[in-house]
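quick one: WT7 bound model?
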Amino acid sequence: MSSQSLYKVSGNIAANALVNNDQYKKMYQESIVNPEGFWREHGKRIDWIKPYTKIKKTTFDDHNLSINWFYDGTLNASANCLDRHLAEHSDRVAIIWEGDNASEQRKITYGELHTQVCKFANALRSQGVRRGDIVTIYMPMVPEAAVAMLACARIGAVHSVVFGGFSPDSIASRVIDGKSKVVITADEGMRGGRAIPLKRNIDDALKHPDVTSVEKVIVLKRTGGKVDWVEGRDVWWHSLVETASEHCAIEEMGAEDPLFLLYTSGSTGNPKGVLHTTGGYMVYASMTHEYVFDYKPGEIYWCTADVGWITGHSYMVYGPLANGATVLIHEGIPNYPSPARLGEMIDRHKVNILYTAPTLIRALMAEGKQHFDKYDGSSLRIMGSVGEPINPEAWRWYHEVIGHEHCPIVDTWWQTETGGILITPLPGATDTKPGSATRPFFGVQPALVDNMGNILEGATEGNLVLLDSWPGQMRTVYGDHERFVLTYFKTFRGMYFTGDGARRDEDGYYWITGRVDDVINVSGHRLGTAEVESALVSHELVAEAAVVGYPHDIKGQGIYAYVTLTRGTEESEELRQELRQWVRKEIGALATPDLIQWATGLPKTRSGKIMRRFLRKIAANEVTNLGDASTLADPAVIETLIETRLNRN
Ligand code: WT7
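yep, here:
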């Protein structure tokens, strides 16, 4: 992270970008000094049914926390993504879709997308979905995933998208929390040449004894693979839309009415349902999409994220579609069937803007440049990175091999909770430094604090907090407002705590150093160590488990588990494999531990608290300077763990 080389804004970008550095500074200043005036103006980028007169009522004081934006206005998110474009751009392509197998291609215009959404929205109504209901969506990366989301938004239902890689248990807990009456899925999804049994996972999830709310399962026929069928419960997507009307009036939603729920991991307990509302979210998602990617009408924009993550919500669906963009959606993974796929797709579709994750770049890097020998890349103008800190080597490789040294990189820092990008370069305004997310977006006030909550000035390092609200901020943890207040506003009074650490350099640029809580980041996906631990200890042969992240070349962080077996159980390679499969089945593939170390004991304080800092260091193979072990109940435990550690190179 020591790299201080500067990549200056230059060329066409500098000449034609939406904002240059002086404009950025002026706008940023105004957004902080006069937030009401700033957002009164920029809120107009969205179509309102009843225009707002109230702009902002927010306080981070944990005793009367309040987050309200544009709060007397009304609107509909689906109308903003579709209807508003029909008069002039009905024939513009909204979605270009490429299947896992590249021979499958589709193009859907804004007019067609509008029709599909209206029909499916009517279908949802016919299945009993009403305003305010929570609809669970478990879909592959096909245009119908966006159709399902927008159809919910059209009728005022709240969608809860569950990532297609999650297990039946994970689906069940989300369905239970949201009391969904209707679940939308597909027979199967295709990823990297393999069929993913989505419908079967839903069937298994709904067998969970605590799932009592589900009345209907709507199934999209994607592959035609064989599925079990529950008469009276399961209905085919195509038979519903066949007879549905293509006229569907929009529901008039309040700015602060919920738009969607998305579950994300925290440092304790079950994933929390992050709730986003309509008005502020739409303003923020569309504005950041336009400014951060310097989006110009007609450009082809490709975000490689899955719709099951916040990036898929804000920067594949809501932001770009609100801006009338042409969005490329890819069903599969960008390095299948070979690492050349990414370059082939950029060239095939003349992609202008690419938004992807460091883990993919590192995976491609490991395969070698030769896969890009035939890659032209001349269409590409801007490239984004998201999900985890991007190491300078990967940044440079991205810049050279994919961007041919002429595409600015926007390293965008944000979270599920923030709804949109908070710290990022702007292509025409910000000179970049590999590894730094650089400066705050308009209206965003980051600060660094020490562990007591004192604000630190100048070039320094600390806990990353935000001092005031921005329109895209989450409003609550669904069903548990206490947890919302506790998680984000109590650690440092009067501030939103991100859970990240960061460094600020002499130019005021931010360098995110990673999570400072018990959350790990595997390939840009967030996982609570507590979730993996609780999956492990639910196995009958496991007495105790402690999970930490460790540096991993491709994934950023890998999962390192210390496992104590029940008395008399023999350690074996088979059991290790079994435990890995077990966690995979409990949570999903991305939670599979990379390394499992057998531990006869774990380092604990005298009061029984596991001292994770030792475990992190041993997992990282940093065993020479472990720090003060005097508070441990049994310091000898550490020696044994060091001797039997696994990650030695
Ligand atoms: C956590 C949020 C935001 C969509 C994808 C992840 C890490 C995210 C960056 C970045 C360094 C980053 C942080 C953050 N993170 N982007 N550009 N540089 N770290 O969303 O699952 O809610 O995870 O991802 O640690 O807190 P998420």
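The radius of gyration is 24 Å.
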